[in-house]
């Protein structure tokens, strides 16, 4: 005869942990715990095959199954010393589904099975708590009615609410035992009316009906749909787990609690948790009574305490990970209800991993896989104190663009931010930021914008600076000139103005009114260093560089372990106050002579910047990109000029002075505005583009204005000479942006090479090595990468732009529909956050293979924002890149993600192996 | 002994036409003509091997070569009855290079060799024209000095100009024979000074030096560079052709002329040409004397005339193509100087091809290959009368965007264009056009814009309408509000204003001030129909459809032979005056209810449009694209609103009324502007995008506003029902634009399908067939085409957008640097005119292959503007598409290009086989 039912409990089990196919995940886990000697409330599992038989057999099960069930029940009653349906001291049961793969919340559960008119009275007497007993009973009728007979929840709710209203109660907890007795009678009537039979008083009948209901839920629409989504076979079926219920509220020798084998906040190896005497599990969570720290359990019942410590230590040893457990003490007897690997904060994850290696519990590879790279963010940025945050009004949720908690007073312009930052911390709030705002962003503790996504200017720059940032916060309407903003929250419209305190959480996108308390992390702790060292061993030769534009960021990058600079955006240096006038002069002229003159003024400044980067990166490569953005980014905005010009004829002196401050680089005085503004607008109109992203930028600038590339090349190589002569090792890599084919690279390479040879030759440094390469950020460049690689010494994938062009998606505009796209499952992830492997990834793979086919020596990396995203780092590793480059504050994350990718290479996907 | 020198002349030749390797192209041609009995001035060819020997042998040639040369010269002297260096009647020679492949203008030529102090006098006496003789001599000294001794041209020019200035002559022709004698003496001095030897008086020495100079020019920098570009081997070497010179100015028995075997303008089979008695070839071209029609040659010398007719007829028979020939009669003897396949106009090309088939001269395949598809344009559009055009001031040259000649008065706004067109033809001049301008473009005879390229809105729409159009005319600064424009020409600034007459040539990009005369073509001539019928036989199943949005265009498309509509842009119907308010209401509302209400008003209008298309295309497929452009195209411009809002507080009543006319769909009266404008601006700001090309458009609209797709699907299928019930055959294909992956198509397909089933079901037309497919216009869609094809029943490549995204190039902005890119050879062609095969083409090929891999039944076409470009049509044929679709007026061009592609498939590239 086949075995359909497997018992467990009393320190043993018929099944074991390997039998997930027949016992399901939950059943196998219970068997495993019992075999490990953990005191689990006893029970039995009806195997998954029965579920299939049930459906194949017109929703009936063979007689042998029922026979095996009654036999297992007999055993269970003996083990628990209680009998199902015993009016004096009833055994109560839970009936739960449990398939091979977890399908959380998709199928049914019935609790408190065994209650009827008589046993409820027995439970009431036994616990001395009639309110509890009748509340259990009415809940059971409702759950059973709904699950086993399809009685709609609302009928029960209506009856309950009617009585509550009649009694004028506000809370469910105001219901007395007598009220609940009335409800029980009502519920039985409702059951009868809709189920068309009396509520079954026979506990064994209850059991068989519940078992069938659990099987039926395998084909509930939501469960079918979930299986289809997750590609789980319909033929697996679900097991059915029947288990004795235990109660921590059976008097003063009973208790209930939760705990961790280590501190989930810090990772420290301390016994951590809390408990309540004479209480149910939900009381601990509900917060009505204050639980006691678990250390006090010792005073209440030393035996139980010692047993619990002993069991949980063994569990940790057995599962080789920190355990999160629930327990109940019923009349002096300890029962473990659940144990699982515990969720933990980033710092705890790192500490637990490192400690467990020291303790010999896990090896280094396991330790490295135990920490989700994103968790490291918490070690690198301040975080909010959760309690403190709860007391504030939440204004809105935007897009989490740069992690960390920031508190400050609102500033509406970059100028204000700089000024106000002298006196107090500042949050810069803008509709969007532009390169003009760099100084304000630099002065601010946090940045908040109304538009833009994870790759918007604000997001990219903030991450580079390590400044917390929330973008795309569409609920906020900003009046920048009025220095005021309004926010529609769920229940009211809030106005916020300059100087108001706000708190923003760059890790969640939360924006709060008021000052929350923050906690500072310690990124330089020895345990963190030890962990990263372990990770780096697995990472091997795969490099991690940082995107940094100025020496300060380069130094930060080195501190975080960056092995070079993967992207220096030269234009970020163009916005400094002493440079902008020269940049503007260069742009606004229409002849080469004046442009060359303006460039000559910029040259020494650029040279100084580059020298600073080379010094900071002594011995590591520095990739410098030539000018990239469209020129109109450096001049006043077209529409602002149009409006000012329209207003000028009727403007009063104050308005004119305001205007003058905007155009101070162009107009000497108020009077001159009349002639300057139209000229300026005319030139700005010439520079105007319908789609600047696809316009006159990148190498297209260097090709039409070769003198710009010449100046930049000269600045780079003069800086090389300067630093090399100090005895430092300089490894410059000059990167040409936005090429579409080899012809553009050839053009620019020729210019750079000529200057390099000239400058190095003159300095007697002919042997100084340097590379000239290109960004791959336009599909055409990727598609023709075999030809490009004949001229390029390196490729660096600019995945921001490559994603924009490959998907035809503007990173500045897509937030208008991206949420809907994510809801409708058109985007699996934000494509600017995680590389779209199917489309963009395919193109990257193609380009890597084409490039290496004609130039096997080609160095290949990525410098788009994806370089700091763990899943994307894994992808870059998989397609065979040499390195990733990301913002300095994400360097540790990338190092860890790369290590995990290396480990996963032989063991499947890194993501699947992570615990958190 | 090897043979190095091959003689020709006197009705025979040692070489023949097959010996291009050794005789070079020119030498082989001369041999071939001689063998055909054509009276060619005699001469000899020194073979290409000698050139290699010359360079291998320190720039010397073996003695045998010289010996063979002198022998050949003896023969030549006998043949021509003159001797080299004979003071009384000198033989003069030309010395020309001639490699296997034509390298036009890359190598050297020396004419009039044999002149010296004595022979010049002889020539002078013989011709009775000392001015001619001394002019020949001074030219020879100069040419020989420059080519053989590297004496710089400027030294000779300086001496010539000095004398000219001294004599106060304006023209070179004012120089007298005596002046030229002075010049000859001067030139000899210059020669001596720079060549460091006397000018050689010995004609044989002149010959050897000239031969060496011709060989030397094989390695001239421009020739080397040309070979590198054209991938011609350096080892081929050049032959050297030495030929007797003949003169048509040796008195009244001499003459010179040019002609064609058929009329190159009309193709008519008439002997066509002109001649001058006692003249040189250049006199015919220079236009100082008026030549006589070639028919009069008969009266002058009947023998010569008959001989010429006879020879040229034979030449046409031999070359099987219309010949363009040059001849000279020297002292009563006819010499043919050149014959080649003649260039011809489009109408002539068609007529000659058709006639030659009728005459049995060529087969149909050859006839089809003889006409360049682009030549058909001249048969489909009016052209300017060239003489008439010459009398006008040329204002500027823009980009030739839609062919045809147009003459009209300038209108600066679409409203003005409509109004003015009632009284006179109109040219609409705009900075750029937008969909708002459709009615103005429709009313205009021609369109002229200052910005944009071949794929700009103006260009695309104009081609669709068949209206001549010039775009990107940057030299014109337009003040639209002032209704005036200024143009900087080479020498002055011209102001043009409303009502001024201009003429624009859409085939050349020329813009002229004034009224030029135009000639109308006859596209319905029997000869054209016959030609297209021949072409269609070769085209086979490969289809040609048209892009058409309204029934009128659909009818035109049918008349041009379109086999269906490949693209109907539904949004073009949205701009009609009766619809725009509903479209705007739909866009400006923030709730589904109002949007649905506005859409309900549009439904019957769209249904009517579609029904019209289906009727016109009875039995042919109609591809209808759902809404594509960003919504802000339908509402007032943001910056215009900002300016108006800024002006409003201080505006006078006239300005306010002007504003009201702009916002009449939103504001009922002047007073309401104060409240309406800020609201309108707020919504327009929400719709504003930084890169609209990559923004919220295409299927992204239908996904976020499913009710728009629903309305359009309903209009389509209700129209299907309406037309099908009339007994017509309707073949609807619904096309979803701008998808990036299969998920978007799934979403929209579901909506369309549900409506289709409902509407067709209700009408009892369940068997009515229809297809749902998608545009491939985003790289990601191409990269994932295998998955897309599982849902798509057809693909249509939108190569405009696919080029924009694949190349990262905005078609609205790229003209700022495209000219520079073409000059620097970064763009081989305008990528919006000709498919970029290397990049975009690779992606198309990939998508075709991926798509067919999962869906072999997939119908594949192209509906981008490239569908009407011959090279692109060839590409589409090669990658295996089923059809191309283009603007109606390009349908014949596409039909011919497709036929040529089909022919070329087994015979190499179509382009290489074309004559014109």
Automatic annotation (TrEMBL), chains A, B:
EC number: 2.7.9.1
GO terms assigned for molecular function: ATP binding; kinase activity; metal ion binding; pyruvate, phosphate dikinase activity
Domain annotation Pyruvate phosphate dikinase AMP/ATP-binding: ranges: 59-292, 305-357
Catalytic activity, as annotated: pyruvate + phosphate + ATP = phosphoenolpyruvate + AMP + diphosphate + H(+)
InterPro entries in alphabetical order: ATP_grasp_subdomain_1 (IPR013815), PEP-util_enz_mobile_dom (IPR008279), PEP_util_AS (IPR018274), PEP_util_C (IPR000121), PEP_util_CS (IPR023151), Phosphohistidine_dom_sf (IPR036637), PPDK_AMP/ATP-bd (IPR002192), Pyruvate_phosphate_dikinase (IPR010121)
Domain PEP-utilising enzyme mobile: 424-509
Active-site feature positions: 457, 863
Domain PEP-utilising enzyme C-terminal: 541-901
Binding residue positions for Mg(2+): 777, 801
Signal peptide from the UniProt entry: none
Annotated Gene3D superfamilies: 1.20.80.30, ATP-grasp fold, A domain, ATP-grasp fold, B domain, Phosphoenolpyruvate-binding domains, Phosphohistidine domain, Pyruvate Phosphate Dikinase, domain 2
Record has Ribosomal protein as a keyword: no
Keyword annotations of the record: ATP-binding, Kinase, Magnesium, Metal-binding, Nucleotide-binding, Pyruvate, Transferase
Cofactor(s) needed for function: Mg(2+)
Protein role: Catalyzes the reversible phosphorylation of pyruvate and phosphate.
Family: Belongs to the PEP-utilizing enzyme family.
Full protein name: Pyruvate, phosphate dikinase
Organism: Paludibaculum fermentans
């Amino acid at each position: 005869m086949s075995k359909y039912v497997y018992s467990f409990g009393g320190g043993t089990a018929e099944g074991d942990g390997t039998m997930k196919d027949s016992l399901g995940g939950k059943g196998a886990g219970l068997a495993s715990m019992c075999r490990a000697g953990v005191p689990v409330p006893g029970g039995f599992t009806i195997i998954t095959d029965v579920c299939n038989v049930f459906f194949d057999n017109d929703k009936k099960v063979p007689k042998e199954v029922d026979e095996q069930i009654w036999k297992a029940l007999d055993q269970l009653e003996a083990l628990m010393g209680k009998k199902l349906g015993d009016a004096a001291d009833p055994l109560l049961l839970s009936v739960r589904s449990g398939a091979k793969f977890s399908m959380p919340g998709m199928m049914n559960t019935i609790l408190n099975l065994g209650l009827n008119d008589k046993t409820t009275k027995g439970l009431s007497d036994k616990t001395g708590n009639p309110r509890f007993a009748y509340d259990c009973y009415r809940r059971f009728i409702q759950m059973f009615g709904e699950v086993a007979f399809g009685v709609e929840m609302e009928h029960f709710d209506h009856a309950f609410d009617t009585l509550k209203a009649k009694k004028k109660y506000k809370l469910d907890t105001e219901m007395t035992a007598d009220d609940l007795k009335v409800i029980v009678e009502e519920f039985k009537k409702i059951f009868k009316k809709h189920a068309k039979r009396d509520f079954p008083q026979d506990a064994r009948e209850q059991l068989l009906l519940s078992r069938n209901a659990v099987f039926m839920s395998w084909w509930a629409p939501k469960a079918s749909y979930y299986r289809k989504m997750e590609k789980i076979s319909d033929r697996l079926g679900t097991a059915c787990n029947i288990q004795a219920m235990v109660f921590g509220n059976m008097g003063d020798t009973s208790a209930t609690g939760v705990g961790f084998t280590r501190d989930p906040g810090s990772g420290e190896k301390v016994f951590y948790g809390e408990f309540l005497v004479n209480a149910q599990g939900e009381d601990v969570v509900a917060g009505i009574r204050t639980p006691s720290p678990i250390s006090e359990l010792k005073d209440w019942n030393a035996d139980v305490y010692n047993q619990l410590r002993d069991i949980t230590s063994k569990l940790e040893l057995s599962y080789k990970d920190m355990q999160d457990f629930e327990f109940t003490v019923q009349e002096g007897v300890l029962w473990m209800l659940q144990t699982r690997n515990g969720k933990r904060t980033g710092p705890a994850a790192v500490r637990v991993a490192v400690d467990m290696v020291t303790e010999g519990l896990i090896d280094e590879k396991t330790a490295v896989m135990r920490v989700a790279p994103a968790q490291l963010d918490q070690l690198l940025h301040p975080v909010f104190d959760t309690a403190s945050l709860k007391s504030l009004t939440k204004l809105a949720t935007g897009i989490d663009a740069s992690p960390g908690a920031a508190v400050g007073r609102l500033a509406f312009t970059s100028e204000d931010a700089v000024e106000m930052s002298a006196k107090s911390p500042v949050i810069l709030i803008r509709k969007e930021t532009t390169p003009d705002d760099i100084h304000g962003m630099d002065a601010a503790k946090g940045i908040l914008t109304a538009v833009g996504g994870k790759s918007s200017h604000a997001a990219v720059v903030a991450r580079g600076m390590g400044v917390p940032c929330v973008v795309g916060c569409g609920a906020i309407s900003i009046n920048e000139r009025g220095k005021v903003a309004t926010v529609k929250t769920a229940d009211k419209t809030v106005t916020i103005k300059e100087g108001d305190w706000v708190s923003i959480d760059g890790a969640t996108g939360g924006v709060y009114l008021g000052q929350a308390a923050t906690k500072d992390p310690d990124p330089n702790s020895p345990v963190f260093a030890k962990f990263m060292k372990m990770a780096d061993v697995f990472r091997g030769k795969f490099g991690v560089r940082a995107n940094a534009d100025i020496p300060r960021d380069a130094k930060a990058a080195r501190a975080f372990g960056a092995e070079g600079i993967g992207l220096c955006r030269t234009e970020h240096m163009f916005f400094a106050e002493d440079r902008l006038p020269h940049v503007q002069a260069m742009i606004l002229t229409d002849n080469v002579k004046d442009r060359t003159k303006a460039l000559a003024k910029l040259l020494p400044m650029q040279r100084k910047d580059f020298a600073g980067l080379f010094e900071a990166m002594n011995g590591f490569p520095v990739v410098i990109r030539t000018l990239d953005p469209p020129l109109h980014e450096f001049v006043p905005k077209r529409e602002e000029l149009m409006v000012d010009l329209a207003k000028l004829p009727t403007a009063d002196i104050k308005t004119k002075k305001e205007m003058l401050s905007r155009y101070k680089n162009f107009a000497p005085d108020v009077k001159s505005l009349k002639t300057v503004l139209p000229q300026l607008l005319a030139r700005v109109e010439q520079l105007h583009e319908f789609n600047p992203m696809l316009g006159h930028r990148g190498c297209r600038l260097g090709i039409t204005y070769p003198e710009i590339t010449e100046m930049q090349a000269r600045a780079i190589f003069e800086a090389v000479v300067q630093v090399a002569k100090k005895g430092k090792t300089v490894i410059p890599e000059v990167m040409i942006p936005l090429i579409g084919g080899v012809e553009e690279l050839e053009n620019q390479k020729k210019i750079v090479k000529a200057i390099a040879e000239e400058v190095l030759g003159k300095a007697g440094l002919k042997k100084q090595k340097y590379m000239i390469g290109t960004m791959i950020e336009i599909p055409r460049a990727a598609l023709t990468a075999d030809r490009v690689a004949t001229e390029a010494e390196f490729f660096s994938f600019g995945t921001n732009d490559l994603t924009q062009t490959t998907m035809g998606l503007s990173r500045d505009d897509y937030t208008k529909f991206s949420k809907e796209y994510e809801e409708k499952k058109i985007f699996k992830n934000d494509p600017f956050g995680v590389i779209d492997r199917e489309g963009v990834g395919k193109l990257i793979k193609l380009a890597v293979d084409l490039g290496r086919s004609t130039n096997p020596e080609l160095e290949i990396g990525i410098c788009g924002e994806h370089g700091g995203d763990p899943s994307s780092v894994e992808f870059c590793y998989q397609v065979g890149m040499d390195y990733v480059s990301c913002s300095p504050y994400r360097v540790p994350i990338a190092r860890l993600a790369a290590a995990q990718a290396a480990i996963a290479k032989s063991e499947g996907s890194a993501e699947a192996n992570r615990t958190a």
